[in-house]
Amino acid sequence: MLSLVEIHTSRLQLRPYAIEDLDALHRIFIDPQVRKYLCDDKIMPREWVATEIENNAKCFEQHGFGQWSVFLKDTSELIGFCGFRFFYDNPPELQLLYGLSPQYWGKGLATEAAAAMIQYGFAEHKFQQIITATDVENVASVRVMERVDMRFVRRINKEGLDVLYYAIFREEYQCDRSLYSLPIKTI
To answer: How far apart (Å, rounded) are the C-alpha atoms in residues 68 and 17?
Structure first.
């Protein structure tokens, strides 16, 4: 039987995608402010999100990690997602990916979720590095990367988009437990 991990921070609860998250995740993915940077401004159909949930379950089965739905602890409202996703470029690349509903931007919640995920990746999976990418114009995402001590590593033109890559390396990682706690529980 597959054991899944739930992660808690001071304000958030993260658990792997579940089919009951489909409608809430779909609303986030199609939000114009979210999709502008995440989906290259394409409106992703509900079926695409359902496939993402299915593929995420397979990723957890194969690797023990994937994408987590992000909930506010106080209200149990699904407000976003955060976790690791393979991008099948040449070569395939594992990246940290995160997104929140716009009404929760600017509150430090993306930073809190990303910091917990970085800790999880280094502590539980012994990753040597964690990378993430964003469009140059996505200044808020760059700020999140910098707040979790990721450093700029490269800028490339990828399929007509100007993309920044940031990384944090295991040997440089400093766990700041005052920012987040990480009770990991198997569900």
So the answer is: 5
Determine the average pLDDT of the residues in 129-143: 94
Number of residues in the chain: 187
Q: In whole angstroms, give the CA distance from residue 121 to residue 12.
A: 17
pLDDT surpasses 70 at 187? no
* Cβ contacts of 19 within 8 Å, gap of 6 or more: 50, 53
SS3 state at 182: coil
Which residue(s) pair with 95 in the sheet? 85, 131
Cβ contact 150:168 at 8 Å: yes
b or e along 76-106 (b: 16 or more beta carbons within 10 Å of the residue's beta carbon)? eebbbbbbbbeeeeeeeebbbbbbbbeeebe
What is the model's pTM? 0.89
Contacts for 58 with CB less than 8 Å, ≥ 6 apart: none
Residue 172 has pLDDT above 90, yes or no: no
- pLDDT of residue 185 exceeding 70: no
pLDDT tens per residue, range 116-132: 999 999 988 999 999 99
Residue from 116, 17, 13 nearest 73 by CA: 13
